[in-house]
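Students often ask why we bother encoding 3D structure as a string. The short answer is that it lets us treat folding as translation between two languages. Here is a chain of 244 residues written in the first language.
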Amino acid sequence: MKPRVVLVHGIRTSRTMWRSQLDHLAARGVGAVAVDLPGHGSRMHEPFTLTEASATIDRAVRDAAAHAPVLLVGQSMGGLLSVAYAGQKDAPPLAGLIGAACTTFPRGVPLSTYRFLTQQFDALPDRGLWLTRRMLAATLPEDTRADFEAGGYAFDTQGDALTSLGDLDLETALPRIRIPVWWINGQFDQLRIHERFFRQLTPHSELIVVPRTTHLVTAMRPRVFNALLDLAVATLERDAQPSS
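And here it is in the second language, the structure alphabet:
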């Protein structure tokens, strides 16, 4: 049985960032859904809270799990939230997890540095949108470049979202995750700093580093990321086969 895939976006962007992956999975007959977290995309008017973010993931996972094994895929903030969700004391109905660009503990220097940078961008004319567009134009292929902005940018939510991430207890969550896990990082991703610790806390997981790639691994190298999606889907499909 083919698994179903639930995709969770990163901070500021929305479910539209997953367009390439949704198209790829649909072409292979794999059911998939990308959610909008509170305060983002179609839910821009809502406040961001960890409780509602987790509930959003849970609703999508349980809906998918009623039909097939579930592969949960999160990028950046979505990856951190997915790790926390997968590592609950009462394990949710997941068959596998991909954490992309999220192998860091959101506290201390990494969190304060990211918050400082977002504040500096926010202080620029047009809240730094012109600079964001120039950076994406310089790093992303034309085919995926517009996907990050298509659902709008959650400028007003990012501060609350970053602060909330500091409350995640990933050190407790990670050892509880017993399902297959793939950590996927770009070679030049600034959030790689704790990837070895993530691997130590999930010794059954695999760490995959994509060469010449930044934090935006899903969009910068979509063919590579989609191939890794295929690997995870095939692994879970094999595992779901009844033993002879």
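Translate back mentally: The longest strand covers residues 70-75. Keep this in mind for the problem set.
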